Amino acid sequence: MDIFENRFYKLNYRLLSAVGLWPYEKSRLLRMCIVNIPVFLFNITQFFKICTSEGNFDILKEVIPILVASLAASIKYYFFDLGIFDIKLLMDNMIKDWNMWKSKEEIKIMEKFAHLGKMYTLGYTGRNIKDFYFTLKEIYIYIIASLFLLVTFIPPLMDIIIPLNESRPMELPVYAEYFVNDEDYFYLFYFHISLSIMINITTLVATDTQLMVFCCHVSGVFAVIGSRLENFLEKDMSLHGLTDLQRKECYKHVSLSIKGHKRALEFVKLMESSFSYSLLLQCGLNIICMSMCLYQIVVLYGQSAEIVKFIAFVVGELFHLFVASLSGQTIIDYSSEVYFKAYSGLWYEAPIEVRKLLILIMKRSLEPSRLTAGKIFTYCLDGFSTVS
Questions:
Q1: Hey, what's the torsion of the CAs at 332, 289, 301, 189, to 10 degrees?
Q2: Contact 292, 61 (CB under 8 A)
Q3: Are 215 and 371 in contact (CB under 8 A)?
């Protein structure tokens, strides 16, 4: 577990640990209870608001997007928890993968992809366009949450800037039914709503960034395998061909690459089984949420400052889909690259037994690995552009 304590994965550990989802944490159940109680109560107040609205569409159209978004975060949380043993197995495999590669070039490639996962998690500007996208998403989601909550304090601010004969009333950032007068306990209710929203946001960030770390890691493994297959004969070639020892080392080198490739394929398969159905349910809920928010934008356009939170909501959902699609595209790119890397190497100079091994890995690499939502939607940039 040492790799999760180094500079690449330390923040992922802290995020998952904060919401009680770190699989190696001994006090995980206690943290889960502390995190889930305010969110559960928040969802209950939203549900009660729907029940007491008596079918008032003006109330429903504001409550449903928030409730759906909260349920989406809860679904991701509980699916992650239900698959915690698979998540732990994925992390154990990450440790084995890091110990599998020995050369400086291979470790450098793994560190490069671990750094990409770190950029996504940390949220600071990187050196290339991909780092920029990871950064923007991480910062954006907390900025949007803050703007969403700060809309509550626009009325008192307007009382200072443009005062009226009477003070403007403050409203909670979202509708909620507490069965008591909101004005009497306004700041207590505001704190509860704010805490619940931030817990949901942290849950989304923690689970999404961990998924991205898994995607970056397995992409790094595919990249290492491609590099090994492309360069496996360059140092051994001589004018007199290969010695018996070099032939054995060559066979061992390619065999290790095939084992690594098999491990990477199993890693993607396990990762998809752990996240696929939660991603599918989240996609469905996001469509409902975005539809209601787009309707609100049309209704409130030019009439209310609250339109800002609904615009932020829609853009946030689209950006979330974009980042998930980008992570899926990374797996497709580097898993399919193994074939081209192997073909670009000096395979024709290799012994016949090594060529037979290369045929196996090249044949399997013709079909790239994919991250899907329940086998229905493939996360890739083509899929995102279609949805957009």
A1: -120
A2: yes
A3: yes
State the maximum Cα–Cα separation within the chain, in Å, rounded to a whole number. Answer: 97
Tens digit of each residue's pLDDT (9 = 90 or more) over 42-56: 999 999 999 988 888
Closest by alpha carbon to 84, among 20, 3, 33?
20
Of the pLDDT bands very low, low, confident and very high (cuts 50, 70, 90), residue 125 is very low
Say whether pLDDT at 130 is over 60: no
DSSP state string for 149-183: HHGGGHHHHHHHHS--SSPPPP--SS----SS-TT
328 contacts 378 by C-beta, under 8 angstroms: yes
Strands 372-373, 377-378: pairing is antiparallel
CA-based angle 37:41:47, to the nearest 5? Answer: 145
Where on the phi/psi map is residue 20: left (φ > 0), alpha (ψ -120 to 50), or beta? left
Distance CA 337, CA 340 (A): 5
CA distance 258 to 353: 14
Q: To the nearest whole percent, how much of the chain has pLDDT over 90? A: 13
Distance of CA 251 to the CA centre of its chain: 38
Q: pLDDT tens for residues 65-86? A: 888 888 888 988 999 999 899 9
Is a pLDDT exceeding 50 seen at residue 127? no
pLDDT-derived band at 121 (thresholds 50, 70, 90) equals low
Query: Token digits for 361?
Result: 């890995």
CA distances from 76 to 21, 53, 70, 84 (A): 11, 28, 10, 12
Average pLDDT over residues 202-210: 86
The tokens 């504001």 sit on which residue? 62
Average the pLDDT over 266-293 and give the result. 83
Q: Identify whether the C-beta of residue 74 lies closer than 8 Å to the C-beta of residue 43.
A: yes
At residue 335, what is the residue type?
Answer: S
Instruction: Give Cα 266 distance to the centre of its chain.
Output: 19
Measure the CA–CA gap between 135 and 125, rounded to whole angstroms: 6
**How far from each other are the two terminal CA atoms of the chain, in whole angstroms?**
40
